[in-house]
Design a protein that fits this description.
Blueprint (H helix, E strand, L loop, with lengths): L14 H9 L1 H30 L3 H30 L9 H23 L4 H47 L1
Length: about 170
């Protein structure tokens, strides 16, 4: 049966949500901020690794972590606005519940780094290991969102395939 070859997966968006997603400027903002934040992460991770390996470049590492964290805040705020526009709530929409929950862990660890940096509560090496923990959670969270992006693309592909089967059956 031709219809049985269509992959079965839960649609990430309703038709209305997809239309709102495609219309809002916040989708573009997220699409711009995500790779910028990832680039900042890569540079920062290299600077952290350099310091941990050589003991050199602490200021550069700290500066890069602050920049990466500010980008994280920007993407979290604009992502919440995007979620409100698309799903009608700022956070924890069912389609992104687990990603949002884990994002809170990412945000908490990055914020703990900033608090420790500003308060002087931790030594440089301890601060940078805290940043490593924050970055590890960021990588997991980024992977969660990449999986969702892929799911959305597959869902769109499935919609097109189903429509072509329906169109073929109707003719």
């Amino acid at each position: 049966m031709a219809g049985s070859s269509i992959r079965q997966c839960v649609a990430l968006y309703t038709v209305e949500e997809r239309a709102r997603r495609d219309r809002t400027v916040w989708t573009l903002v997220q699409g711009i901020l995500a790779p910028i934040q990832f680039l900042a992460f890569v540079v920062s991770a290299l600077l952290i690794a350099r310091y941990l390996a050589t003991g050199e470049g602490a200021t550069a590492a700290h500066t890069s972590i602050v920049v990466k964290t500010l980008l994280l805040y920007a993407i979290m705020i604009t992502g919440s606005i995007w979620e409100k526009v698309v799903f009608g709530r700022y956070l924890f929409a069912p389609a992104f519940l687990w990603e949002d929950m884990f994002s809170m862990v990412v945000l908490a660890l990055h914020t703990a780094y900033l608090a420790a940096l500003l308060s002087g509560a931790l030594e440089t090496t301890q601060l940078l290991w805290l940043a490593v923990a924050a970055y590890a959670t960021y990588v997991i969270n980024a992977a969660q969102f990449i999986v969702k992006l892929r799911q959305a693309r597959l869902s769109r592909s499935d919609d097109a395939t189903a429509a072509s089967y329906a169109g073929g059956a109707a003719s």
